[in-house]
Amino acid sequence: MPPRLQLLPFQWQRPSTLSTILTSFLHPQSRNAHILASLSDTPGAYNKRIRRGRGPASGKGKTSGRGHKGQKQHGKVPAGFNGGQTPDIVVHGERGGVNVHATDLAPINLDRIQSWIDQGRIDATRPITVRELTQSRCIHQPKEGVKLLGRGVEKDDHEIPISSVLKQPIHLVVSRASSAAIAAVEAAGGSVTTRFYTKSAIARIMRREMHPFVSMQWNKESASAGLLGTETGEQGALTEAMVMREMGFKYRLPDPTKRRDIEYYRDPAHRGYLSHLLKPLEGPSLFFRSPVERKSAAGVKKEKILPENRLW
User: Fold this and answer.
1) Is residue 202, in this structure, part of any structural domain at all?
2) What pLDDT, on the 0 to 100 scale, is given for residue 230?
3) Shortest CA distance to 127 belongs to which of 186, 192, 175?
4) Contact residues for 215 (Cβ-Cβ < 8 A; gap 6+)
5) What's the rounded Cα separation, in Å, for the pair 168 and 112?
6) Tens-place pLDDT, residues 289-309
7) Is the pLDDT of residue 164 over 90?
8) Of 23, 61, 102, 151, which is the most exposed, with the fewest CB atoms less than 10 Å away?
9) Residues facing residue 147 across a β-bridge
10) How many domains does the chain have?
11) How far apart are CA 193 and CA 174, in angstroms?
């Protein structure tokens, strides 16, 4: 399209206002031809894809970027393929890797907790849960729970804790705890309780929509021992409904459903909160029954009566 030329006035003097208006109305503003060549799409609206095998002008013609000959040009090669010989993973074995079933826990040590107590950032007279540890910045990310470790505990030659960094008894409710940390806390007169958490449950605990440790399977007798810090109900025990009604929580704290988690929190050695569910002489395993259950399932054994004339 040829460029449009603006019309020149017939007189060199300045036209009047009326003639200027008529000229702009009859002859609208014109555009130059080079504007059409600068048109383009909105940035990000068009993504140029690679067109392989469309001739040498495309930059990916002839061999389409595969090179000349060889197995990588003719077909696909599996990852770790060594040309047909024994793979390296078989010869040297697999080392390292990531356990996809592992729980991502935030570690916390006793010396750091004691430092926060000395600074007045944590109240040692109240139960220390994942909410107190996170809000005081003792841990920065709760992740899927908290694991208590025993840094700051001195041990003897037989790996037995002899002294602790703790100066006062504390009551901790965490996801997991090491044996050295449990021994150090209990030697100072405190207690450790391991509790099952999920990522969504921790998020609701932070928003104060869920209690940090009371659930349906929580031990009512231990809850009424002063750990909650509230008045007890009938028969000296607090139920989950009473705690939720008094404190105004919206959601109930979940309990474990997987067998691995249930067995961990049933173990008294781990100070699991489900250890009160064990029957006499029963272990934390869900596979093996207790001697009492096996005896009751077998029933009363009848005594065999031999005839009188039998010699042996």
Assistant:
1) yes
2) 45
3) 192
4) 240, 252, 253, 254, 255
5) 14
6) 777 777 777 677 777 777 777
7) no
8) 102
9) 107, 176
10) 1
11) 6
Question: What's the rounded Cα separation, in Å, for the pair 203 and 189?
Answer: 31
Per-residue confidence (pLDDT) for residue 225, from 0 to 100: 45
Question: With the C-alpha atoms ordered 254, 260, 262, 265, is the resulting torsion angle positive or negative?
Answer: negative
CA separation for the pair 216, 233 (Å, rounded):
16
pLDDT in tens, 38-87: 888 888 888 888 888 888 888 888 888 888 888 888 888 888 888 889 98
pTM of the entire predicted model:
0.62
Tokens of 252: 């109930």
SS3 for the chain is CCCCCCCCCCCCCCCCHHHHHHHHHHCCCCCCHHHHHHCCCCCCCCCCCCCCCCCHHHCCCCCCCCCCCCHHHHCCCCCCCCCCCCCHHHHCCCCCCCCCCCCCEEEEEHHHHHHHHHCCCCCCCCCECHHHHHHCCCCCCCECCEEEECCCCEECCCCCEEECCCCCCCEEEECEECHHHHHHHHHCCCEEEECCCCHHHHHHHHCCCCCCCCCCCCCHHHHHHHHCCCCCCHHHCCCHHHHHHHHCCCCCCCCCCCHHHHHHHCCHHHCECCHHHCCCCCCCCCCCCCHHHHHHHHCCCCCCCCCCCCCC
Does residue 292 sit within a domain? Answer: no
pLDDT at 9 over 70: no
Distance of CA 166 to the CA centre of its chain: 29
Domain holding 174, by residue range, is 106-255
* Domain-located, residue 200: yes
Q: Take residue 126 and report the two structure tokens written for it.
A: 């109240």
Task: Please indicate, yes or no, if residue 219 is contained in any of the structural domains.
Answer: yes
Strand partners, 154: 163
CATH code of the domain containing 155: 3.100.10.10
